[in-house]
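hey can u check if this looks right to u? its 507 residues, i copy pasted from the old doc so theres a chance i mangled smth
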Amino acid sequence: MEVNNKRIAINTIIIYLRMIITTIIGVYTTRIVLGSLGVSDFGLYNVVGGVIVMLNVISVAMNSTTIRYLNREQGDPNGNLNKIFNLCLDLHILGAVFLLLLAESGGILYINYLLNVPPSKVSDAMFVFQVSTLTALVGVINIPYQSLLQSFEKFDQVAYVDILTALLKLFFVFFLKGWQGNPLRFYALGMAMITFVSLLVYTFLCHKQWCSIVKIRFYRDWKKLKEIFVFNNYVAIGAASYLGRSQGSTLIVNYFFSTAINGAMSIAYQVENYLIMFVTNIGRAASPQIFQSYSTNINQSIKLTAQVTKYSSALMILIVFPVFVSIEWLLELWLGNVPEGAVLFCKWTLVSALLRSLSEGLTTLVQANGKIKYFQIVGGGLELLCLPIAIVAFLLGAPSETMIIIYAVFTFLFLGARLFMMQRILKMNILPFIKSVYIPISEVLVGCVLFVFILKKFQQITGGIPLLGAVEVGIVAFGLLIWLCFTKNERITLKEKMMAKFNLFSK
């Protein structure tokens, strides 16, 4: 199968337009929510919601699982998309039931005995937890419909739904600002209703376009159901490790510190999520073609994965370094009243997000192969190992930001483990991959770090302007990427596209 680079480019543009719009709305929404709830209640919502996010691993894993099997079925002349969709939907319903049972047992025990909140806030925490559980259940059922749109590369429709959801959240928080009752409970109810609206829209779009595919039927193909279930379980290990690390760290920090510290950490994790969206969107646009082309042209899939990894890392460099040198100013502009510790949390989050981008695309390639058991177990184990280490560190008196520092270190170790496992599973020589991707990226990173160090020293003397420093770092990073990271042909192509855009703008 020939890779459609034009289709990937169009999908990428659509995804980034969606992301830019939703990010702008999301950033402004966070500012209003933080001001309306306060740092403590804002942290409380994220702690309690974090319990549900940890339990919602099933839906996260099933997203990529459903896309994989739908894409494979599309490439099969005798494929039955209706069967695959219904089998995945059945697994989601079972997952929702399991989520409900787990939430109503373990979650309630955590709130009553482990949650570090004032006694007067326990009832609010329980209310938010129950509403968040309902929200999570709706989100699980929503995944197959969203995955169907993505498997057919209908990223424009996904973008419309996400923008609609973001606008609804923005509209809702304006009411939150003037709400005279309990704002925490009101906010939880609003998020639940918006999630339900998203489900209705996704269901409508799928029924309108592929009524025969989404028609509810019961299939007794236990072998295929078992295959999807087993594959999903291994994918869930990777999803669980990431969610367990991020949300588990929230719970651990709450136990050793306070909801105010959780509020600062939640700001840092929001920054991380926005950054991760920038890099994962490239892989998301290319993933359908990586899945579809793997069976016919493995080398093409590997080449496409290398491009995704390099471009994702390059994009992250262009974002992280300018943000790093101006983070104090940006947080004040964003939040107004910056929670204590948020600046330091965000700086280390930027480092970990940059390191995480270096692995973008590798998991998709291994999932296309299907042999993901040891890849997920080893990687997930390394990612979760930072939690007990952090607990020991906190018991010894370490500060709260130690959690993110430890994760940054393990993210780097995780990259090495992924490359090793990829070599073993795919039987490929990873040296050309390292030479074409990681060596030039490393050279750019060294150059950017040195420039930031010099710039910081210079600003200490001159009292430099944060925004000006960010622009300077961005220009240097872009120049280093063009010089060291991109090949001659890539530079020529980039120049031609930029000139074409300039000529169009001039006309």
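The CA atoms of residues 177 and 495 lie 48 Å apart.
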